[in-house]
Design brief:
The protein is mainly alpha-helical and 332 residues long. 54% of the residues lie in helices and 7% in strands. The structure holds adenosine-5'-triphosphate and L-tryptophanamide.
Length: 332
Amino acid sequence: MDNNQKKPRVFSGIQPTGGFTLGNYIGALRNWDKLQDECDCIYCVVDLHSITIRREPAALRRAVRESAAMLLACGVDPARSILFVQGDVSAHAELSWLLSCYTQFGELSRMTQFKDKSLKHPENVNAGLFTYPVLMAADILLYDTDLVPIGSDQKQHLELCRDVAGRFNGIYGDVFRIPEGYFPKVGGRVMSLQDPSSKMSKSDENDNAKIMLTDAPDAIIRKFKRAITDSGSEVRAAEDKPGIVNLMSIYSALTGKTFPEIEREFEGKGYGDFKLAVGESVVDALAPIQSEYNRIVNDKAYLNDVLSEGAQRAGAIANRVLHRVRRKIGLE
Ligand code: ATP
Ligand code: LTN
């Protein structure tokens, strides 16, 4: 293992599928930005993960570019961190195959994301969807990662990564560093605005259920006004108020106010005032990101430079680890 590495190593990835949601931002991307101060961060647009569903080639290329631009707009800083596209570093696909030989069919069958997605797309339950968590484990383990900033929906995949790495180390000695998850204090699971029992998902067909980071201010306010809330009229964090609790989590994550502070702020006021305040806090948080995004997204030369330098730097680290693994197995 590379003992010269002083700062903790951070790795995370996001799929280039149709823009990012407020859930992606609060659950993951805000921590991506924050961790750059104290850690050595590597961030990745996981294009290989995103082809478990059919993509138009031109749309996929555009989505990768737009995703990279949005990550930069959310604060990923190429002067301090590495930003690259997964498919540009072939070590990911290679380690994924190697690790798949140390991962059991039974443990992959238990993954809830696999079960959910195969129910959603019964016509295309491909092997890539099944082995998706193995590729994610390869992503993480290739960089001797200490911390993985993710939303809580990815906890199960990270546990699998730790299990596979531990198993491999059990056979061959101390090969992989075992990573830890890094989750936000509030907002680890932002829920749909139309159904507070399911997570806000970029693939949700109902546009009113999700806030996209590129949504215009009037659309954001409108979606919060239409958000499903619960019976009663008090803004209070109670078990029978999942809609209100979801809005409170969003508001708390963006303003730093605690739940008791929020309850006090809206005492005697109705849901209408509260929804408007939440909408406004989101508009305020997204305004600087949107103007950065609009500036960067059409600068193809800059994006190409960032991503090709990122791939080179990531590749150098990943290939060292891949050789270490190949030697242990007996492939070199
Ligand atoms: P899809 O909805 O198509 O499954 P997704 O929105 O989950 O996609 P990913 O690329 O799979 O997007 O996830 C990127 C990151 O955002 C992950 O760290 C994930 O945990 C986090 N994340 C996704 N949705 C939410 C959510 N609703 N709340 C908090 N974090 C989330
Ligand atoms: N599987 C994740 C995206 C992802 C990831 C990673 C996250 C791919 N590789 C490595 C953290 C670390 C998802 O679906 N959100």
